[in-house]
């Protein structure tokens, strides 16, 4: 019977707490009794001079009794340890469920309904006179709450089941015989069960696989690494780990697998990946030995089989890659593997693909997620791993490469290139087609799409390396830019500023002399990097003094080259997602510096209107570049539509709060707003951005008439004035006449600078 929401929130866990305390007393008492039995009764029995029947019967009885007392202590201690671990977990989950269904649900105006099968549904109750119309934000919040409560319930059910199972095994089936399974923690019991299931391999039923996933999901990411380490050690080592994961991934991705099975194996991929990252982190309290990394490298170029007489065995790295795609891995474990895989790919790009079945469905799917390839090429996998591992990716791209032998041992010396950025951005670097689609080379669209998988993964890795966050972490706060990260951004901008053709996307091939570049698939990530370093890009537009405080950077400054930055923005801005990220960050950053000029302290003797014109100029120039790039993408290269540019905007609003958050330490203290400083401006800025992006459009007639930037220019002017209006809300010392003069000055500066940016971009295109 499923643990229900009502069960969890209404159960009196205080009784369980009392039971824990009682069992602790029992353990202590039995420990004393066991010591007395060993050191007293049995010791005397062993030293006594028995004769006759007493030498066998009585001595044996005393020995057995002493053992039973010791077994009773072991059983009681096992029960106590399991209950002591389970009780605080259930208390924590119960409180989370109460908070979510109480104050959180009330704040959203929803109710929580227990449907009795271990899940809940959330709904908006009908109120008389209410139209029952809900915004997308409200609906998303309701779904998030529902998912969160169901996750809490699932975790509680897993704890409940694990405790019950451990208690049964501790007690055993014989009421007259103590001493059965013993556990030092609940984790021990959970790892034991996970291994029992894993030993069944693909013979696990769907229900058992769901249970395995719950055990891995809720325990594999625990900070102390105890469960994850016990689990992987219990599997039998790196080779057995690869065999188990290969067997399960192929089982879930085979043509005969049900959708339920496929989804469960997708979960298994994530859960095992996160657990492996946890277990291989040398800084966790419990972790695997460093030899696991060396063993994985050794197995990387060896074939792995999991069935008797198996043909077409995959290489170790193909299997391992599926696990590495999930989890934040320590650089000491991941970087040697990533370097080894990259060097193997450089030597022979098709080494791992030579055994791939041709002309028929490929049954090997070591990446059940289906994201960016099937997993046949481990290069895509390790780049995705770096994309989720910021410390590892930063070191990978900023430290000198280490050369490796084919067996994964360190070779010493240089691998033949200066940096991995140089290697991957070489126009002759060979990206492979990693897909299970049949007859892939006969379908040009499928081939083009598959060839973007590697560049997209490279973009994710660079995004992680430069931001200090996993690339898909949409909720995390900004991380201060280190010297190494900022310098890497400068290198990236120089690389693509000098060679923007690497990022070109000529979708329909309409311009015969403008072939698509091999790396256009990574422009989305480059847009996010630009947004992250918006202060540095604004500094570069009009060559701001590096010592200036007017355009603050978030940590170390990147020191971007002005010309390279403009050409970089031009190429990147042709991608709808990149355009939206850059535009969102630009307007948020501009709003912040405008607010600083209006409301901050300054010793400058320059006029306020002049200073405001200066601070909106860089952002408006970037807006001009974006307008021209958008028009180029739509009408020159036919790579996107106005609709795609507009729809991308909603997904990039995360940059508003992130950019505003970067400025909190500089200007937050002077804003008398409860909660997050500058939050008062976030919604207004987001609304302004959406209007700006929707307005920044061009028709073919306008393009032919040379008016392609008129709407974009208007949008830049409007957004600059909106930034000033937001700043004036917190300033009661500027009268209406002065405010009008400031608006006039800021509109003029924005219009001129937008034209500057568009002109720079057009001139760059003509070269």
Question: Would you give an account of this structure?
Answer:
The protein has 767 residues and is mainly alpha-helical. 62% of the residues lie in helices and 1% in strands. The chain has helices spanning 5-10, 13-47, 57-108, 136-171, 186-198, 206-219, 226-235, 238-253, 259-279, 291-300, 316-324, 331-347, 378-387, 390-398, 420-424, 444-450, 453-467, 483-498, 523-532, 534-541, 562-572, 576-599, 608-636, 642-651, 654-662, 664-667, 679-695, 700-704, 710-728, 736-766; strands spanning 111-114, 120-123. Strands 1-2 form a two-stranded antiparallel ribbon. A hairpin with a 5-residue loop joins β1 and β2 (120-123). α8 (238-253) crosses α11 (316-324). The longest helix is centred in the N-terminal third of the chain and has 52 residues, at 57-108. The radius of gyration is 31 Å and the shape is globular.
- The protein's oligomeric status is single chain
Largest sheet: 2 strands, antiparallel
Low-confidence regions: 42-51, 57-63, 667-678
- C-alpha geometry: globular
Approximate strand percentage: under 5%
Calculate the mean pLDDT score and round it: 83
Kindly provide the radius of gyration, computed on alpha-carbon positions and rounded to a whole number of angstroms: 31 Å
Task: Record the strand order, biggest sheet.
Answer: 1-2
Number of beta strands: 2
**Alpha-beta content class:** mainly alpha
Helices, by number, come to 30
Measured between the Cα atoms of the first and last residue, the distance is 71 Å
Tell me roughly what share of residues is in helical segments: 55-70%
């Amino acid at each position: 019977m499923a643990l229900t929401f009502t069960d969890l929130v209404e159960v009196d866990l205080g009784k369980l707490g009392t039971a824990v305390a009682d069992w602790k007393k029992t353990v202590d008492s039995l420990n004393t009794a066991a010591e007395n039995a060993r050191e007293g009764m049995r010791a005397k029995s062993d030293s006594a001079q028995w004769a006759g029947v007493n030498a066998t019967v009585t001595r044996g009885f005393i020995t057995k009794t002493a053992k039973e007392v010791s077994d009773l202590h072991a059983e009681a201690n096992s029960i106590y340890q399991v209950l002591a671990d389970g009780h605080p977990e259930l208390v924590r989950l119960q409180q989370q469920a109460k908070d979510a269904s109480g104050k959180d649900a009330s704040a959203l105006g929803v109710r929580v309904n227990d449907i009795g099968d271990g899940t809940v549904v959330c709904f908006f109750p009908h109120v008389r006179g209410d139209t029952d119309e809900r915004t997308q934000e409200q609906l998303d919040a309701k779904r998030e709450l529902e998912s969160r409560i169901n996750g809490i319930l699932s975790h509680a059910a897993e704890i409940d089941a694990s405790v019950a199972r451990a208690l049964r095994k501790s007690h055993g089936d014989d009421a007259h015989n103590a001493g059965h399974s013993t556990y030092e923690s609940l984790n021990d019991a959970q790892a034991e069960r996970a291994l029992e299931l894993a030993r069944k391999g693909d013979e696990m039923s769907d229900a058992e696989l769901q249970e395995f996933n719950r055990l891995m999901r809720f325990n594999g990411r625990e900070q102390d690494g105890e469960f994850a380490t016990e689990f992987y050690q219990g599997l039998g080592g790196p080779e057995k780990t690869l065999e188990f994961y290969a067997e399960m991934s192929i089982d879930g991705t085979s043509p005969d697998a049900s959708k339920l099975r496929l989804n469960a194996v997708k979960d298994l991929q994530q859960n095992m990946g996160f657990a492996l990252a946890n277990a291989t982190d040398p800084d966790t309290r419990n972790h695997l030995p460093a030899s696991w990394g060396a063993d994985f490298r050794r197995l990387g170029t060896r074939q792995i089989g999991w069935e008797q007489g198996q043909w077409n065995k995959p290489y170790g790295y193909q299997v391992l890659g599926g696990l590495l795609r999930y989890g934040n891995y320590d650089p000491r474990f991941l970087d040697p593997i990533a370097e080894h895989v990259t060097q193997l790919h450089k030597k022979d790009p098709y080494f791992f693909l030579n055994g791939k079945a041709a002309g028929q469905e490929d049954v090997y799917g070591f990446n059940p997620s289906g994201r960016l390839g099937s997993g046949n090429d481990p290069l895509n996998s390790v780049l995705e791993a770096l994309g989720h591992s910021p410390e590892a990716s930063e070191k990978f791209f900023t430290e000198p490469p280490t050369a490796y032998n084919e067996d994964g041992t360190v070779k010493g010396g240089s691998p033949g290139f200066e940096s991995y950025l140089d290697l991957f951005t070489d126009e002759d670097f060979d990206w492979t087609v990693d897909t299970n689609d049949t007859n892939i080379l006969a379908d040009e669209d499928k081939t083009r799409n598959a060839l973007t998988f590697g560049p997209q993964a490279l973009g994710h890795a660079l995004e992680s390396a430069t931001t200090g966050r996993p690339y898909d972490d949409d909720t995390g706060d900004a991380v201060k830019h280190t010297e190494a990260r900022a310098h890497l951004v400068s290198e990236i901008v120089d690389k693509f500023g000098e060679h923007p053709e690497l990022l070109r996307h000529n979708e329909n091939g309409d311009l015969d002399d403008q072939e698509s570049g091999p790396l256009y698939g990574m422009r989305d990530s480059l847009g996010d990097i630009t947004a992250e370093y918006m202060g540095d890009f604004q500094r570069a537009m009009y060559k701001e003094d590096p010592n200036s405080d007017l355009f603050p950077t978030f940590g170390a400054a990147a020191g971007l080259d002005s010309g390279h930055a403009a050409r970089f923005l031009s190429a990147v801005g042709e991608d709808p997602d990149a355009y939206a990220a850059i535009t969102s960050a630009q307007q948020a950053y501009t709003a912040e510096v405008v607010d600083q000029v209006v409301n901050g302290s300054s010793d400058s003797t320059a006029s306020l209107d002049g200073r405001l014109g200066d601070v909106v100029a860089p952002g408006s120039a970037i807006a001009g570049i974006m307008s021209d790039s958008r028009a180029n993408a739509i009408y020159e290269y036919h790579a996107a539509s106005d609709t795609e540019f507009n729809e991308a905007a909603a997904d990039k609003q995360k940059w508003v709060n992130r950019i505003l958050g970067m400025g909190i330490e500089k200007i937050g203290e002077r804003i008398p707003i409860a909660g997050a400083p500058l939050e008062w401006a976030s919604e207004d800025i987001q609304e302004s951005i959406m209007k700006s992006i929707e307005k920044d459009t061009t028709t073919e007639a306008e393009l032919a008439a040379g008016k392609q930037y008129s709407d974009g220019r208007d949008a830049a002017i409007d957004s600059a004035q909106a930034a000033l209006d937001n700043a004036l809300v917190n300033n009661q010392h500027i009268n209406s006449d002065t405010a009008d003069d400031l608006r006039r000055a800021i509109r003029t500066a924005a219009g001129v600078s937008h034209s500057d940016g568009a002109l720079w971009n057009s001139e760059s295109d003509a070269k």
